[in-house]
Write a structure and sequence with these properties.
The chain has 173 residues and is an alpha+beta fold. It is built from four helices and seven strands, in the order E-E-E-H-H-H-H-E-E-E-E.
Length: 173
């Protein structure tokens, strides 16, 4: 990636504008390829702030109530875990600057809870690559995303289907 400064911005708000020259296209991926994500540390305030806005249930908000609940302790909402997975995926930048455009997610699972104090890390595996027949400028990459906590326990598993451009907007000749 090459970066250059935008000369039109004032000195106070000088921002680097990056020009991505190595964007990955459909043809640049191989089935079986694996990409590691950076880790995310989960704090108690992360858990309760997300839950208070988006999933206000006692198991995500109140330690005493959560201890009596089905997960036996305070835990993130599954939707919070999914949002953190998306953050890790975008930070891993699997398309080298190209967008991560989802068509949908299959088989979203949260087999173990994420707790305050956990450090979670993801792995993306390219499962399949399918050029589009109706839109020859693009194709679909199906990935398996697995997120684990610091003990190695799987806390999220999902299969997103991603809309990916082809090099030069068409199939290779």
């Amino acid at each position: 990636m090459k970066c250059r400064r935008n000369a039109q911005l004032s000195r106070i708000f000088l921002v680097a504008r990056c020009i991505h020259t190595n964007v990955r296209y459909l043809e640049d991926f191989e089935a079986g390829e694996r990409i590691q994500t950076p880790s995310v540390d989960v704090s108690r305030s992360d858990v309760t702030e997300f839950a208070s806005q988006f999933d206000p249930q006692p198991m995500h908000l109140d330690e005493d109530a959560a201890t009596q609940g089905p997960l036996r302790g305070l835990s993130t909402s599954g939707w919070h875990t999914t949002a953190m997975a998306m953050k890790m995926i975008t930070a891993a930048d699997p398309f080298d600057g190209g967008p991560v455009l989802g068509l949908g997610v299959d088989e979203l699972r949260w087999p173990n809870p994420v707790r305050p104090g956990d450090r979670i890390t993801g792995e993306l595996e390219v499962v399949s690559i399918t050029p589009s027949k109706s839109k020859p400028t693009h194709g679909v990459i199906r990935m398996h995303v697995t997120v684990r906590n610091q003990k190695g326990d799987v806390v999220l598993s999902m299969f997103p289907n991603l809309w990916v451009p082809r090099r030069n907007g068409h199939s290779a000749a």
